[in-house]
UniProtKB/TrEMBL annotation:
Start and end residues of each CHK kinase-like domain: 29-223
PANTHER family: CHK KINASE-LIKE DOMAIN-CONTAINING PROTEIN-RELATED, PROTEIN KINASE-LIKE DOMAIN-CONTAINING
Entry superkingdom: Eukaryota
Listed Pfam families: EcKL
SMART domains in the record: CHK
Gene3D superfamilies: 3.90.1200.10
Classification lineage: Eukaryota, Metazoa, Ecdysozoa, Arthropoda, Hexapoda
Name of the featured protein: CHK kinase-like domain-containing protein
Organism annotation: Nezara viridula (Southern green stink bug)
């Protein structure tokens, strides 16, 4: 991507840190120290506000756009990347995802108050329809759909921001490229919208944020000479709607663990070893502030998606 930017004399700041050195003997990679250059991570408990979200989505559009141009030039290939583990590892789906939903249902019924009892009961779903629905989210719809190289773990803790003298975010660098995969760009987009942005900010600005991403993606594709079919904003919106089950499920499952103040939110090894029966810290879900953050989306999740699974 650096060479692509140089070819087109793109003077925008890169969205990745600089490579310094690789030692083949120790398999060590040395990268630039972003902290020394004024970058810092937004605390995961806080999440991103609107200004940070806009900058991150503009940069995600650039990343996806440049990756698509490199694919068209046959510099990178979708065949070089494995399917996304979140959609293919059945043990992970049953232990972590389904186990988390079951744990949420239990805590909600026992601790959230009588007004949540009906929602808690609806969350008691069978594993088979849940797993089938979840794993269908990872299916690439067709060869004609717009697909890109996804980052794979795109949320607020995997990016660092730089600020101006008024403390406004003006630059961002992406980190942790360990889960790349090919699919619709809306996998990264959903992941970020539900895990990286403060829930009230996402809910209040959802369509604006999608447009922010789409504008950046199309602008980048045009800048670097992409000649294929570009997705419309309607395409992105429709795909996000199709992936809503993915976004809401992962929000309900992971957001509490990623944003809580406890350092022992989850014993992941125990969760996997017990098939999702043990390993969850129920106290994380009992905090009033967590109930406030999760509540509106949990209601949407149950009404739009879980009710249908219970009837199947």
């Amino acid at each position: 991507m650096t060479y692509l930017m140089e070819e087109f004399e793109d003077t925008d700041e890169s969205i990745w840190c600089k490579f310094i050195h690789y030692d083949p003997r120790s398999h060590s990679i040395l990268l630039e120290d972003l902290k020394e250059n004024g970058y810092s991570v937004v605390p995961r408990q806080k999440g991103l506000d609107l200004d940070h979200a806009i900058l991150a989505l503009n940069s995600l559009g650039r990343y996806h756009g440049m990756a698509k141009v490199l694919e068209q030039r046959e510099i990178i290939s979708k065949d070089d990347y494995k399917p996304y583990t979140l959609f293919t590892d059945l043990k992970l789906v049953k232990s972590y995802l389904y186990g988390s939903i079951s744990n949420l249902s239990k805590v909600m019924k026992n601790s959230w108050g009588p007004e949540w009892e009906d929602t808690a009961n609806k969350l008691k779903i069978s594993f088979e329809p849940f797993a089938a629905k979840w794993m269908s989210m990872g299916t690439v719809q067709s060869e004609t759909n717009f697909t890109v190289l996804n980052h794979g773990d795109f949320w607020s803790n995997n990016m660092m921001f730089k600020y101006d003298f008024q403390k406004r975010p003006i630059g961002v660098k992406f980190l942790d490229y360990q889960a790349p995969h090919y699919n619709t760009p809306c996998i990264d987009l959903s992941y970020f919208m539900y895990l990286g942005i403060q829930p009230p900010v996402r809910r209040s600005n959802y369509q604006f944020l999608l447009k922010t991403y789409h504008d950046s993606l199309v602008r980048t594709l045009d800048k670097f000479g992409f000649t294929g079919t570009k997705p419309t904003l309607e395409d992105i919106t429709d795909t996000m709607k199709r992936l809503e089950f993915f976004g809401l499920t992962y929000f309900a499952v992971s957001y509490p663990n990623l944003t809580c103040t406890s350092s022992e939110a989850l014993d992941f090894e125990k969760v996997i070893a017990t098939g999702g029966k043990e390993g969850f810290n129920e106290d994380v879900l009992k905090k009033p502030e967590m109930i406030e953050k999760l509540g509106p989306d949990i209601i949407d999740f149950v009404e739009r998606h879980v009710s249908g699974l219970n009837q199947s």
